[in-house]
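User: Hi! Is it possible to get a structure for several chains at once, not just one? Here's what I have:
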Amino acid sequence: MTALVHPDADAAAEPMHIALVGNPNCGKTALFNRLTGSRQKVANYAGVTVERKEGRYTAPSGRVIRVLDLPGAYSLQPKSPDEAVTRAVCLGDLAGEAQPEVLVCVVDATNLRLNLRFALEVKALGRPTVLVLNMMDAAAKRGVKIDRQRLSAELGLPVVETIAVHRDGAKALIDLIDAGRIAPATGTVPADLHAETSRLLRLAVQMPPAITRRDDAIDAIVLHPVIGPVLLAGILFLMFQAVFAWAAPLMDGIEAGMQHLGTLIGTQLPEGPLRSLLVEGVIAGAGSVLVFLPQILILFLFILVLEESGYLPRAAFLLDKAMVGAGLSGRSFIPLLSSFACAVPGIMATRSIQHPRDRLVTILVAPLMTCSARLPVYALLIGAFIPERTVAGLFNLQGVVLFALYVLGIVSAVAVAWFLKRYKNTNEEHPLMLELPAYRLPHLRDLSLGLLERAKIFVQRVGTIILTLSVLLWALASFPAPPAGATGPAIDYSLAGMIGRALEVVFAPIGFNWQICIALVPGLAAREVAVGALATVYALSANADNAAEQLVPLISAQWGLPTALSLLVWYVYSPQCISTLAVIKRETNSVRMMLLSAAYLFGLAYLASFITFHVARWFA
Amino acid sequence: MTLHDLPVGAHARITEVLEHRAADPISQRLGELGFVPGEAVRVIGYGPLGKEPVAVQVGFTRFALRRSEAERVLVVTEMEGVA
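Assistant: Yes, the chains can be modeled jointly so their relative placement is included. Here is the combined structure:
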């Protein structure tokens, strides 16, 4: 082997650029987290919607190493956009992406037969390559013995062992890369990769015959045709319970903090536009959205634990047939589950659906899952209009209505997906071929890094889009100021007032008055802002939370039940969420698709509200 | 017989992976996942509705396959003993 990468004199100069490449589920991301800690940057590859993760660490020599975590791939003959990116980066073919100096090929030591085959494909590229035997602890526990030197000699590649979940688990890899003596892979790779893999395994690896006994026992329960679905329902029930119950104290805390901040600013600043902007625009607007951070984090904690443990693909297995019947795929389950927190991460999670049409249908129906932003609106209207009484001797009527709204969303999603399936039926096969990875105990470090990333994305959204639109709404509702001697509420004279009156023409047939119409406009930024907006419109100078309390008697006196029901149903479908539309545009790379989804949701919302309003009026 | 005809827990060996059309990408991917003649397979379970999908172990890895995918994989049970 020849010294290739850097002479020692330059050790601290240019950052070295390495890429992690490997099968899905090989522990690559855990290794990436181990190497780079929280110094990660998540973005997209230029022009495609494949997630690009880069991080860096400083080697013992002082040299900075840039690490790219490539999307997991089963082969360099790509079958999905993710795999195409992995291939292009390895070959140095992706515009705007430098070819990595070293390919770090990560294999799961407990799953060598599958992983080594891909490693051979990587080796055949002839790039400087290191083979990393990851999850050596799990392999040792199962009695897998790997002769590292023999494997290295037969492969013609340096081979190191790592345990990504241990503090010093990546030391061998860090030292090898730091030493900088990684030569381009040499030697030919036989055409029959499978036979070559078998040969390597025969020579260098000893495996006990039954290393999957533990997983056999778990799968016998989890995949059981009766127990499995019951277990899944139990887990989902627990999850929703947790999202609403556990988050409550944290949300109250954030709310109290925001109120406190508002009061503080309110008393410190003199009365005037600046105070109004900060208290009623920034804190009431963006602050009322930040309140949802705990719910989103709890939901993602569940999703991450289920994902890391290997359970989520099993849930997809159990639901696949039912979802195919509805025109979706088992793979749609994970994105749709996320959409109950927020459709934005849900739609981003559709990247794991290989088939473009399945993915598109999932994206189109994801906004119908009741996201947490609709809850404040539901809570306000149900509290004001649905009497609190027991039905069937057991259930709280308010709770039944809330549940019915969730169900209405799900049923509508199934109906839309089913309609799209009929409308655009092709005989093309939509593959599943989903790996059910070995069960693993989720690791605290990976969970916290995953949650941190989610929190960052959410807070950024609040800090940018939602903040901007909150300020914009505040301006629309405050200017122009009423003329001197005006008697009506200030908002009557503002731009928002004019917009509301103009919109009323469109929405009167479904029972909305002009005040509701104005509230729909800021609801574009984030649905929950509609509550605060209604409060502003009803000329209450209060922020969203106590506004909700004072609003209840006001609206229950001014609106009829048909209007309230119509508005509730409107929110089941309402397409008005700029972030969702923006993410649809980004993920489908198509303005047309964004407009289509906005139009169909608007149409459904209008139609359903129209029917609700008139049926309710007929009964009333 | 095909992979989809195996009872849960049965051990079998792959004899052939069929192509349903020329350069069938699904068959190609099955090969990349380890569904190759000579390999041992075992059915872990079937989905709760209509025996679909099927969970299969090949090598040390488990995959969920739809019926049409599993039916591309021809097998003999280990009792009949073909390598």
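Strands of chain B lie at 11-17, 40-49, 52-58, 61-65, 73-77. Residues 25-32 of chain B form the longest helix (8 residues).

User: Great, thank you!
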